[in-house]
Write a structure and sequence with these properties.
alpha+beta, 5 helices, 27% helix, single chain, 6-stranded antiparallel β-sheet, two-stranded antiparallel sheet
Length: 193
Amino acid sequence: AYFGAKVLHPSTLLPAIRKNIPIRVLNTYHPMGKGTLIVRQRQPTKQIVQSIAYKKNITLINIISTRMLQQHGFMAKIFEVFARREIVIDLVCTSEVSVSISTDTQADLTGLVQEISQFGKVTLETQKTIICIVGQGISAAIGIAARIFSTLEQENIPIRLISQGATQINLSLVVDNETAQAAVRSLHKTFFK
C-alpha cells in the first residue's frame, strides 16, 4: 500500500494488524472473485513474488562527500535536516562516500539543498518512480534479483537506485517516470504469466 497500491492507505491497516483482524480486498470489476486476503502471518507459497507496486513523481537527493568516509554521525546530521524540515524519506542507499535519498514531497527543496550542501555536493533528480517488488522471503530467494534485472535490461530500462530492506519482503528500484509503465508491465509478464 505504501508504494503505490491505491486500494488501501497504509495507516488504515494498522488497527487491523494490531488486533490481528484479516482484511479482504476485492476487485470492483469481479466482486465474486476471491480477492486478496491480508493477514498478519502469511502462509508459505511457491510463488515468491506476490505483487508489484509503484510510486511516481519521486525526487532523488544525492549527496557526495569524502568527509563521509569513516565518520560517525554523518548520516545523523543529514537526517536531522530532513526531520527539522518535516520531509519524509522513502528509500536510502549509501556507499562509502555518497548517499541517495528518495522523497515524494511536493515541497520546494531549495532550502533543504542549501542546508545539506554543507556536508557535500548535492544534486537532485526529479521525475523518478519507485517500483517495489513484494514477496515473502524475496531477499533470500535465489535468482529473483537476476530475473528482475534481466527483465529490465531486455527492455533497456536503466535502474537509478536499488534498495532491499531488512524486512526481507521487498526489493525496491528507482527508474525514470517515463519508463515506469514499461518496467511494471515487463515485470508482471516475468512473474505473473
